[in-house]
Design goal:
CATH architecture: Beta Barrel
Low-confidence stretches: 1-21, 330-339
CATH superfamily: monomeric porin ompg
Distance between the termini: 54 Å
Number of strands: 15
Mean pLDDT: 80
Shape: globular
């Protein structure tokens, strides 16, 4: 029982007094880079894409594990070589006995300059609305412990938790993104983004607590084997956010089962992809992705290898995504060279 009380105490401390928490992270980060960087909006084959992602984390640790749901769409405008990218993203994190929830709605906007036919550089901004809430109906406290169970009819004397807590803030991010076809067999993309530049106040208990600014660096390369349907696609993602830091590196291997035609290009292609990654000091990741005619589905799992393995037994997070890319004609917004 002492262990349970200690866990509850630790959870409470982390929720209310920790200096900051890490932002959401995804195993399949390379499949929707606009989540990482507003300057990446519009960089995909077709004219518009719809993307949704689900993640469940640390199921063995808690009866109410962390669950993340996201939905996004982005598209291109004025696509005459250079173009403008726009989008709308929604995120919802929920978990813990307190019903700790974060909602975020972001609007990435960028402008991509055509340096040459196969080389673009973009700068983007992302205004956002950020909300955090906590409910207290299911919380229990040490002075409610009777020796055999918690009696929630006892007054916990927690004056700051007499009502549910909610805060909403404006947020803004910015980024830069470079994408290039180096050759018929090689593509490169790299991005740098700063998040929470407004450094908004987020703590329920203290007016002085602010969300740490976050610096994100990400990149991906694609190397196609000549006269083959096989591609090698290494990628990385890293960030610094106050005392928090993360670096994930690895690669996917993609095989085109059915090639594209000259007319429809990407939108007549069928391919499968398998990847493995390492989130340094934390987890091993694996994913499988199936692409057909602009529709993609992917699943991933991470195996925890950090000190938390004592509690998780190695179980980490399950993740899945659905994506659909829409083509508008054979040119303009439908330019298949951007992907």
């Amino acid at each position: 029982m002492k262990i349970r009380i200690a866990i509850l105490s630790l959870a409470g401390w982390l929720t209310f007094n920790a200096s900051a928490q890490q932002d959401k992270h995804y195993n399949m980060f390379a499949e929707s880079p606009v989540y990482l960087n507003p300057a990446a909006a519009g960089f995909f084959p077709g004219g518009m894409q719809l993307f949704t992602n689900f993640r469940m984390q640390w199921l063995p640790v808690s009866d109410t594990p962390y669950r993340t749901i996201s939905a996004a769409t982005d598209w291109r405008l004025f696509d005459n070589g250079s173009f403008m990218g726009m989008g709308v993203n929604f995120y919802n994190d929920y978990g813990g006995t307190s019903g700790y929830m974060t909602n975020e709605v972001t609007v990435p906007i960028n402008y991509a300059i055509e340096l040459n036919k196969d080389n673009h550089f973009a700068i983007g901004l992302q205004p956002a609305w950020y909300q955090r809430t906590i409910t207290n109906e299911n919380l229990t406290w040490d002075n409610q412990w009777t020796g055999t169970e918690f009696n929630t009819s006892y007054d916990p004397n927690e004056l700051l938790l007499n009502e549910n807590m909610n805060l909403s803030k404006f947020d803004i991010s910015a980024g830069a993104y470079w994408y290039a076809h180096i050759s018929k067999q090689t593509k490169l993309s790299f991005g740098l983004a700063g998040h929470h530049l407004s450094k908004q106040k987020i703590n329920f208990m203290s007016a002085e607590e602010k969300l740490y600014r976050k610096l994100t660096l990400h990149g991906q390369c694609e190397f196609k084997k000549q006269n083959s349907g096989l591609s090698f696609i290494p990628a990385f993602y890293g960030f610094l956010q106050g005392p928090n830091k993360e670096l994930t590196v690895g690669s996917n291997f993609r095989y085109v089962v059915r090639g594209s035609s000259r007319v429809t290009g990407y939108f007549n292609e069928m391919a499968v992809s398998f990847g493995t990654y390492y989130r340094i000091g934390d987890a091993l990741l694996a994913n499988f992705i199936f692409d057909v005619s602009g529709f993609s589905v992917g699943v991933a799992y991470d195996l925890n290898i950090s000190k938390l393995i004592i509690s998780t037994g190695g179980f980490g997070g399950f993740e899945a995504f659905l994506r659909y890319r829409v083509q508008f004609g054979n040119g303009g917004l439908g330019n298949p060279s951007i992907h």
